[in-house]
Design goal:
By secondary structure, this protein is α/β, with parallel strands linked by helices. The chain is built from six helices and nine strands; from the N terminus they run βββαββαααβαβαββ. The protein is globular, with a radius of gyration of 17 Å. The structure holds adenosine-5'-triphosphate (ATP). GO terms for molecular function: ATP binding; ATP hydrolysis activity.
Length: 214
């Protein structure tokens, strides 16, 4: 696995209208294999930064560089769409779009669903899932799209602590398979599982996860 830079954030600043800047001069890069936690109080702009990295809108200042053809996948707090499709359909879909045959895609999707404790829900409609189940399903879908860059917003917010640990482990494992992973989180354990913590409140960077950056 190479350690190519997948996300290169240079001197980023964001404000909405005449509001004060959420943050300015934010600079960091994420290599394949790295996990980064974005932290800070509610409203400090974690989701906004993820959206800019995803390319959904241009920042007020600075730029985000990504390698050409990098595959970006995201798991956001409120997953829209797919409400009347089944769990298995949603999990298998990214494999089918990558050229897998239906039966093989279903088998692989079921395998990953089982890792997240969701295989018994295979025939449920998305609309019938709890918040935590829906969040985990969107994570399975993102993993099955084999992203170079995975952006995740509050992956453990709606989960019990045991399930949250499983999700933290999966995110680290995905990075281990060569993805650059950025996670917006309030969860101390998620933060501790990451290689680096970026605190958007104070805008500071801490290597090695763990203690709160001050
Ligand atoms: N398109 C927009 N127009 C105006 N204001 C916005 C827009 N998007 C976000 N904001 C504001 O920018 C601030 C940062 O929002 P954001 O959702 O990024 O915060 P967050 O750190 O992810 O919060 P939380 O931890 O509660 O999810 C908030 O005050 C929000 O209301």
């Amino acid at each position: 696995m190479n350690d190519e830079i997948c996300v290169d954030v240079r001197d980023l600043g964001q404000r909405f209208g005449t509001m004060p800047f959420l943050w300015r001069h934010v600079t960091f890069s994420v290599r394949r294999g790295q996990t980064i936690a974005l932290c800070g109080r509610s409203g400090c702009g974690k989701s906004t930064l993820l959206s800019i990295v995803a390319g959904w809108f241009s920042p007020t200042e600075g730029e985000v560089r990504r390698p050409d053809k990098a595959r970006v996948s995201w798991v956001f707090q409120n997953p829209y769409g797919a409400v009347y499709r089944t769990v298995l359909d949603i999990a298998a879909y990214p494999l089918i779009t990558r050229g897998w045959r239906r039966a093989e895609a279903d088998a692989e999707a079921l395998r990953v669903l089982a890792e997240f404790g969701l295989d018994e829900l295979r025939d449920r409609l998305f609309a019938e899932l709890s918040g935590g189940e829906a969040q985990r399903l969107m994570l399975v879908r993102a993993i099955n799209s084999k992203p170079d860059i995975l952006l995740v917003d509050e992956p453990t917010a709606q989960l019990d602590s045991k399930t949250a640990l499983v999700v933290d482990d999966k995110l680290v494992a995905l990075a281990g398979r060569g993805a650059a992973v950025l996670i917006a989180t309030h969860d101390r354990r998620t933060r501790e599982s990451c290689d680096r913590v970026i605190d958007l409140d104070t805008y500071s960077v801490e290597e090695g996860g763990g203690d709160e950056a001050t």
